[in-house]
Amino acid sequence: DERLDRAVKRVDQVLVEQQSQAVQDAAWLSLRRDGSPAAFAVNNGQFQSDIAAGSRSIAGDGLTAVPGFLDLQVNGAVGIDLAVNPAGLWDVAAALPQFGVTAFLPTLVTCSPQTIGKAREVIAAGPPLGWVGAVPLGWHFEGPMINAAYAGAHARRHIRTPSLEFVRSWSTPTVAMVTIAPELPGMGPVIRTLRGRGVVVA
Fold it and tell me: How confident is the model at residue 69 (pLDDT cuts 50, 70, 90)?
């Protein structure tokens, strides 16, 4: 998917190994590799060799700078289960950079339509003022249109049969990925509809 490919290439923050210090835009790092000094800037989410005058500098001698990780399934973090409390999305996102993650797909396992609706409202409303953290790229709904015979830890009471009506408003950017059971009767039109709206179907 082109949108996810772009997200992988994008650098929203640079994480400094052993220090977990996020470097925001217009900052630069001075590193030493094999005894030779090196410096680069992070500008608009991209590495650059040109360093603007007056940029904030961060000493990185002896450390390693890497692009942030992209996590395609984050069900929660720091004590927050997103399937129980989707409103905790921005708190989870704020915590992820300390683990090296700078972009992610918040994920809900099979749950109620009300929880799914709340999750979409939370991401559509955007982050609170002054928020800093990993960027949510859209929800990953793992279910509820899955095969009950292979439900595993999914709540069977919320499993649904394929329904175009159920997904009629699902699209990017609020929904990025949906995990379904393609073998279920009637799933073909659901898959085609979601893909046509830019949603990755897994």
Answer: confident
